[in-house]
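Re: Re: ligand-bound prediction request (bumping)

Still looking for help on this. To restate: I need the protein modeled with 6-O-phosphono-alpha-D-glucopyranose bound, output as structure tokens. Inputs repeated here so nobody has to scroll up.
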Amino acid sequence: MAGPAPAVAASAAASQSPPMQLPSPFAELVKGSSGLEKIVLRGARNCCAEIYLYGGQVTSWKNDNGEELLFLSSKAIFKPPKAIRGGIPICFPQFGTHGNLEQHGFARNRFWTIDNNPPPLPVNPAIKAYVDLILKPSEEDLKIWPHSFEFRLRVSLGPSGDLSLTSRIRNTNTDGRPFSYTFAYHTYFSVSDISEVRVEGLETMDYLDNLKAKERFTEQGDAIVFESEVDKVYLAAPSKIAIIDHEKKRTFVVTKEGLPDAVVWNPWDKKAKAMQDFGDAEYKSMLCVEPAAVERPITLKPGEEWKGRLVLSAVPSSYCSGQLDPSKVLQG
Ligand SMILES: O=P(O)(O)OC[C@H]1O[C@H](O)[C@H](O)[C@@H](O)[C@@H]1O
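Reply:
Sorry for the wait, this slipped through. Here it is.
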């Protein structure tokens, strides 16, 4: 297999000033939409990923053929304080309305910085394209959430095109106080047609229904399909979830570590129309499946660190007499 092409040559053309030094030769910093800075990771063949410093947010992940795998709204606003609509916003220190902060917390609309000297992480030596970002609270942040923290995010592109995000959150309070937070990788997948999509791995799970005042229910029946608005927090969800796109014959496998829950969201037509930064018909081509810690907040004492990981892969769907064999995807 051919290795990724170093990004050095492309960088001179893409930006006028010399590229900022990044530890991986397969990562470069360039200007993105509205002049906001983004990092481009280049993997083998045409695989690549883009991460904005604004929000520490992945906005693009492309496979070998250069096809986009994440949804990014055509109406996304790349201007603070609005979070970018699509990709993988990071919800921290609060998911949704589970607390007194703004919806989904503030990490998604802060500027992160490149962390050139992160504490070591166990790494797969085959991973060449990666970047480390860091978010620390500003004086203003401390007024709304009075806790000192270091949030380190590593985004990497594996040799087979897998995208992984590893979050490390450390309590750096010096006043002896613990803190608690909820969290989600608010992943927007690009799908061909939401009516042709199934999610496997969540059947029979308990969930909180955000459309019914967070009341608890148990999922019935088979795989999850979509014919109206869905906004559910599946509790104690398995570590692998599959999103099967029949039309594209593609299956996304979502692998999560340290994140017990999984949120599934599609706004459907009415809510789509009500969102300023989302096209009226775009609900048909997206689905959010969001590894999360919602029901039980995570608590860290000073000096303690939490790690939560998300790995995404996209594989061709396997059919067997017209039926998908989910066991191949989820256990294979
Ligand atoms: O519009 P946003 O603040 O980005 O939130 C978008 C959606 O995120 C999550 O999936 C929540 O469960 C939904 O209730 C919310 O509508």
